Amino acid sequence: MRMRAFSVLVLLALGFLALTPLAIPASAAISSVGFNMPGEAPRFTNGGVPIMVAGVLHYINVTVAAPHTNVTIVCHTGATAPAIQNDTNYYSWAYKNGVWSDVKYGSYINLSQCSNQINNVYKFAVGMAASATEGTWNFTILVDGTLDWASDMAVEAPNAGFSLSRPDFFFTVSPFQTQSVSSYDPTNQSFYVRSTNMGNVPLKWEFRFNPLGSYFTISNDSTVSHPGEQRLHYIGFNAPSWSPRELKVTGTIKGEPTYFTSAATVALVPAFEQGFSITVNVQRSGYTLLNFGKVIVQYVKNVPLLKFGNSTTIDAYFTGEGSATLALEGDNITITSATVDDVSVDPANIVMTLSNVTEKHLRITIKAEKASQTAFTARIIYTLGWSDAGAAREELFSTAVTVDKVPAGYEEPVEINWMAIIAIVAIVAVLFGFMAYYSILKKKEKEQRRQKKKGRGKRE
């Protein structure tokens, strides 16, 4: 009876040991075992099983009580080693008499990072192929040929995914000046690229800008991004002395996994890229840029409220190649004068010789002379002409001017109709002339009758 009870207890104990996933020390040689990717904290499943990501370099740190000449790690799928072994289901790494090795394949170990110099810790720098089978593996360590550690190990497939949140970036720099600008503005709204490492492998960020790559800088791209880490990247632009222009630039961010360097893993753990757009405008602040190829215009598109009867000046700047003509016309606004580089010109007939190294400065003076009981929009119409490869080109654009209504109590002066006055004067003059002629005629007829009557008296 006692023998039967003892047999039952033995069977129960063996069953418990077979079901336990945690480390089972077989001797006192190993005190601890640790898993981690370089620069990363150890990761575990919810059940406390250490995680190893396939395709990525890991450190397996085996701590022993005293130095040993032979420490071997064996891991594989299933409870026992597979009959057909390959890099999807079986690995073995060893330290033997000062020599480190990948026992099975010779590829999945980084010899330069293996060491056993500090506190009896045997540091294995090893990895698996990216195609290694996902799931729970059997993990054992032998010390001097004796099984000393056994546990489960969870293998994950590499996931190098990331997310990118970014706006469209716009930079404005002044023409003919060297200038540095940044999307970071502590006094106002900042703009940035937000990157998030959503995978289970460390990533190295790489940013590219095309074109003008040498003029751009990016922040927070120098160190490895850890799984789950989120970063903000600010963009800087160092502008040389340029003439006015608009430039379209494509920014690209690439997440490069920092995985174990073997041919098998490189091919199976891809990098990912996403793009964003940048517009660089070289123009004066507050001006609209028009690029007509051989002629570049910077002008004011809208003029704020102009009081009735008031005057103001508007500036425009022209660069380019060759000669250009310009005609200005006021629609419900009066153009009182115009100058180019402080020289008076006829607003209807302006001729300019353009250059890409200096600007032609046009200044227009306008006056709000049209009276209206409501505010209205007037316009300055520009008709620009030039020659391109022998062909005449012409473009029209305009400046909108908001003109205020007349003040309360304003009475519009009565306009004198000089034509009507002249007509009336002419009619009166004709009438007076006719009356004078008629009076003279009557007097003449009366004198003739008197003379005739006098002649008849003498004959009698």
Overview of the molecule:
The protein is mainly beta and 460 residues long. The protein has three domains: 23-156, Immunoglobulin-like, CATH 2.60.40; 162-282, Immunoglobulins (Immunoglobulin-like), CATH 2.60.40.10; 288-403, CFA/I fimbrial subunit E, pilin domain (Immunoglobulin-like, Sandwich). The chain is built from three helices and 31 strands. The chain has helices at 2-19, 263-268, 418-459, and strands at residues 30-36, 51-53, 58-64, 70-77, 90-96, 99-102, 121-126, 135-143, 146-156, 162-165, 169-173, 179-182, 193-197, 203-210, 216-218, 224-225, 230-233, 235-239, 245-257, 272-282, 288-291, 295-299, 302-306, 311-320, 322-331, 334-340, 343-344, 350-354, 360-367, 376-388, 391-403. The chain has a six-stranded mixed beta sheet, with no helix packed on it. Strands 21-22-24-29-26-27 form a six-stranded antiparallel beta sheet, with no helix packed on it. Strand 5 (90-96) and strand 6 form a beta hairpin. The longest helix is centred in the last third of the chain and has 42 residues, at 418-459. It is rod-shaped, with a radius of gyration of 47 Å. The termini are far apart. The relative contact order is 0.09. Residues 1-26 have low confidence and may be disordered.
What is the strand and helix layout of this fold?
Elements: H1 2-19, E1 30-36, E2 51-53, E3 58-64, E4 70-77, E5 90-96, E6 99-102, E7 121-126, E8 135-143, E9 146-156, E10 162-165, E11 169-173, E12 179-182, E13 193-197, E14 203-210, E15 216-218, E16 224-225, E17 230-233, E18 235-239, E19 245-257, H2 263-268, E20 272-282, E21 288-291, E22 295-299, E23 302-306, E24 311-320, E25 322-331, E26 334-340, E27 343-344, E28 350-354, E29 360-367, E30 376-388, E31 391-403, H3 418-459
Parallel strand pairs: 2-9, 11-20, 23-31
Antiparallel strand pairs: 1-3, 3-7, 4-5, 4-8, 5-6, 8-9, 10-13, 12-18, 13-17, 14-16, 14-19, 15-18, 19-20, 21-22, 22-24, 24-29, 25-28, 25-30, 26-27, 26-29, 30-31
